[in-house]
Write a structure and sequence with these properties.
Helices cover 28% and strands 27% of the residues. By secondary structure, it is α+β, with helices and mostly antiparallel strands. The protein has two domains: 64 residues, Nucleic acid-binding proteins (OB fold (Dihydrolipoamide Acetyltransferase, E2P)); 188 residues, Glutaredoxin. The strands form four sheets. It has a five-stranded antiparallel β-sheet, with no helix packed on it. Strand 9, helix 5 and strand 10 form a beta-alpha-beta unit. The protein starts with 21 loop residues before the first strand and ends with a helix.
Amino acid sequence: MRIPLLLPILALTCSFSQADTIRGQVVAVDKESRELSIRLDSQESPQTFAVGAGDAAIGYLGQEIVGEPVDQPSSTLPRLNQIWPDNLIERNAMDGVNRSLIREAALLGRGESLSRGDYLPDFALYNQRGEPVFASQLKNSPTVLTFIFTRCAVPQMCPATSARLSQLGQRAEAAGWDQAHFVAVSFDPDYDTPGILNQYASAMGMDGEAFELLTGDLEAIEALLRLVGVRTIEEDGTIVHNLVTLLADDHGRIVLRQDGSRWSADAIYQRMEKMFE
């Protein structure tokens, strides 16, 4: 998946196909009914769409968005899927950062990856609240960085990683470490939109501001994966992958790296304790 930069402006008709892409401004949100009213670029009157629970929770009120409308035979409202923010200024800033990230990954030697003592690379992705997040924002305090995808069905992999990250964040909150960041980057942006990550964060107990579940441009995510040494293979309808979890200090320097699905939240917590003494 690549978030489209130039999108066709479509005249509104009585039906949609999944090939359509629309853009417009959200002018009203009904979170209870999970509906967004959008003033499309091609229409004067707003059009109402049914959306998923995560997209309704984000709301995007007053913001420009893009999405894929699909007719629902059982409803008078079309459904809007694959919703992404569409702020041109933000997107250009993010693209600039990610171009540098991609170049950095291309220069990496075969078999090399970031290790203890290296610095987290700059990247720019969207979080589960539909907000752009720049890595530079994370480098002012300790940051835990790991990688998941929400459709992962192997209990000891992404679900276990997400559960540990959630527990770690809750322990940090109880300890008063308000500035710590707990970040999970999805390597499945074709499915994991901000709205999907919003639902996932809620289900996994990662509702707090300290949690950043990130998604966005596939090429940028692949560059980040290469830099940290996460390898993915699409196989039998799923994504086979290894796991890497990093702890960086308040300068963005990696102080702890754990490879594998059995990474220790206790080890990270103990290291963070020293940072907050």
